[in-house]
Amino acid sequence: MSSESDIALSVVRRNTEEVQGHGDWDLFDELFADDFVDHTPQPGTTPDKDGVRALYQALRHGFPDFRPEIRWQIADGPMVTTYKIYRGTHRGPVLGVAPTGRSVEFETVDVMKVENGRITDHWGVGNLLKMLIQLGAVTL
Q1: Where are the domains of the chain?
Q2: What is the topology classification, in CATH, of domain 4-134?
């Protein structure tokens, strides 16, 4: 029998690989609790399940070859922390930036809480500044 941490790790990994990486929206509905709360929503999204779905779909639209790579994960009971790198080619608008055809690579760190096999909460930090610099939208 799997521990609470093992189950939580599996759920979060499936979200990253199958939902974010392949756009499996049926699985998204299965993995996210209806009362999900995003404690750090991205610009232009709402802090709920619909907001995260919109974010994931916007990323897949903006970067049709969107690829998440989990570098490491650790769980403490229902809490899973993941460090990952996102990569893709900018083919659609993202954060108000028109398609550039440029490749991007940026890091994120997420913490997700999993209860009863479903993601209930999220806290995260994404290096969106790095992405915007690579797209030429920001210069330093």
Answers
A1: 4-134
A2: Nuclear Transport Factor 2; Chain: A, (3.10.450)
Strands 79-89 and 32-38: unpaired
**Measured between alpha carbons, how far is 100 from 92 in angstroms, rounded to an integer?**
8
Distance CA 122, CA 15 (A): 12
The bridge status of strand 79-89 relative to strand 118-126 is unpaired
Q: How far apart are CA 16 and CA 118, in angstroms?
A: 14
Structure tokens, 47 = 């802090």
pLDDT in tens, 57-98: 999 999 999 999 999 999 999 999 999 999 999 999 998 999
**Neighbouring-strand partners of residue 76:** 79
Q: Give DSSP secondary structure letters for 13-75.
A: HHIIIIIITT--HHHHHHHEEEEEEESSPPTT--SSHHHHHHHHHHHHHH-TT-EEEEEEEEE
* Contact by Cβ (8 Å): 136, 100: yes
- The amino acid occupying position 26 is D
Tokens found for residue 61: 């639209």
Host H or E run for residue 118: strand 118-126
Q: Which helix (H) or strand (E) holds 109?
A: strand 103-115
Beta pairing class for 32-38 and 118-126: parallel
